[in-house]
Amino acid sequence: MLVERLMKLAPDGSPAVEGATDHISVHTFFAAVGEVVAGRLTSAQVKATWNIPDGDTDYSHLAAQLPAASLKGERALYLEGIHGVFMLAEVRFSGYATPAEVRAKLGI
Length: 108
Prior knowledge:
The structure is a single chain. By secondary structure, the chain is an all-alpha fold. The chain has one domain (2-106). It is built from six helices and no strands. Helix 2 (26-38) runs antiparallel to helix 5 (72-90) and helix 5 (72-90) packs antiparallel against helix 6. The protein is globular, with a radius of gyration of 13 Å. The model has no long low-confidence stretch (mean pLDDT 91).
């Protein structure tokens, strides 16, 4: 469900309804995730801000793929990589236009 929200799609993957409020800004979300990685926010705070349920498999899979804390450079590259995928997905760039394509790019 996180993928659809970042792509500004309805939960079923269809085009969003104008004015829908459950979408998440890609840049703001990744700023918050960066703060989680830096230790200035918690994952729980991020999830609460956007009402991301604990059972959201997209969020869980992305968090599980985050490199270990000791690999700071790899963590930064990982975050920038998924940020880039979602920026392309937001504009429906070729190969990033559907939730299935985005999940494949992310390996989730």
